[in-house]
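Submission sheet (multi-component)
Chains listed below:
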Amino acid sequence: DIVLTQSPVLAVSLGQRATISCRASQSVSISSINLMHWYQQKPGQQPKLLIYRASNLASGIPARFSGSGSGTDFTLTIDPVQADDIAAYYCQQSRESPLTFGSGTKLEIK
Amino acid sequence: QVQLKETGPGLVQPTQTLSITCTVSGFSLTSYYMQWVRQTPGKGLEWMGFIRSGGSTEYNSEFKSRLSISRDTSKNQVFLKMNSLKTEDTGVYYCARGFDNWDYWGQGVMVTVSS
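Outcome: structure written.
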């Protein structure tokens, strides 16, 4: 199985940039397609798609969210961070079955 | 608009079978893959399996021996059935739409496995 590793917690100040990383145990890219996706989950809610295929903004998601990366290393950036962004953020790969998630990064305010 | 809603029993006894229904609206099941994902305290978010737009299925081998996913397109419903439940299966079960990334999710249904 592809294991996705995320740092458990990230603390940032409001208005600053948050950089959340996800490292895969093997490449999740096929040719130029990066099969890594990012979700936001607030307490008591379902996950919400933010970024698909590493760098594509999902419908209705503010442009202060962006994604980058390829191969095994991926990043979700939130710039600037707002109070409403307090949540857990999960990466998910669809390169091979079983599809897997990272353990999540909780974004906290300093 | 697109909506997904899971309905299920809430409480299930160990060794029994879990049955959850995902009722969708705003799109056709024959045009989209439908996923089942669960979130447990022990393992976090776990992909369980999917049913393709054409009706075939694929399962996470972690659950393969006890999981079944099916659908009724006439009722816009997708079904999850999992047998031999254990206390570790306690968690929130979600259905979601999509192939490799999932753009719509249901609100989830909390399932507690306890005697």
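Remark: Chain B touches chain A through 20 residues (CB under 8 Å).
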